[in-house]
Specification:
The protein has 196 residues and is α/β, with parallel strands linked by helices. The chain has one domain (2-184): Oxidized Rhodanese, domain 1 (3-Layer(aba) Sandwich), CATH 3.40.250.10. The protein has helices spanning 2-21, 43-53, 65-70, 106-116, 133-144, and strands spanning 40-41, 57-61, 73-74, 79-80, 84-92, 97-102, 124-128, 150-153, 183-184. Helix 1 runs antiparallel to helix 2 (43-53).
């Protein structure tokens, strides 16, 4: 009986994943948000998927530690493992901000997180960043190391910039926060990115 229940639960999980993946046309995404795997979720779909199958999913926030601490973090996120880190000693003149560089420990930390949760490269990994750019790049990197079921949240935690009206230049269009999904400013030590 337990095997039948487990098989039914697994089948429902995969049907749920296919349902979410099929609700969006990835060709409408800017190139920077496209992934090699071609698997995407909206913030709302990510919330639903994680809410129903959290034990079988690794949900990672790939923003910088400062973003998770001062902008907030989704309640359902397992860990913050930044894909990029800020170099506060170097100014990026072109982007008018501190320079951001790839986190050299990113793949190792993801491997550790998978093991800690009892998951493997074939299990579902959902990545979220501010607006879908870094999560797409991070998904591509994880694909290169053999992860096969990676979803990028294409509208991210804060969403895209508005193009007109009162929301022009502000992140009020879509994303986790704008969808009214559960989040907060509390970042406990278990979810925080701590370098050792």
């Amino acid at each position: 009986m337990k095997k039948i229940v487990a098989l039914v639960a697994t089948a429902l999980f995969f049907l749920t994943a296919l349902t979410y993946a099929g609700t969006f046309d990835p060709k409408t995404l800017p190139e920077i948000k496209q992934t090699v795997s071609g698997k995407y979720l909206s913030a709302k779909d990510a919330f639903e998927m994680v809410s129903h199958n959290h034990d079988k999913i690794l949900f990672l926030d790939v923003r910088t530690p400062a973003e998770t601490e001062f902008v907030g973090i989704a309640d359902q996120v397992d860990l913050n493992i930044p894909y990029m880190l800020q170099d506060y000693s170097t100014w990026d003149v072109k982007k008018n901000r501190f320079l951001m560089s790839p986190n050299s420990a990113f793949t190792m930390k993801v491997e550790d997180a998978l093991k800690a949760k009892g998951l493997h490269h074939s299990d579902t990994i959902i990545l979220i960043c501010r607006s879908g750019d870094r999560s797409a790049s991070a998904a591509n990197l994880l694909t290169k190391i053999g992860c096969t079921n990676i979803y990028s949240v294409y509208d991210g935690f804060e969403g895209d910039l508005g193009k007109e009206g009162a929301s022009k230049g502000r992140r009020l269009v879509n994303g986790w926060k704008n969808a009214g999904l559960p989040w907060g400013y509390t970042l406990n030590k278990e979810r925080a990115y701590i370098t050792e």
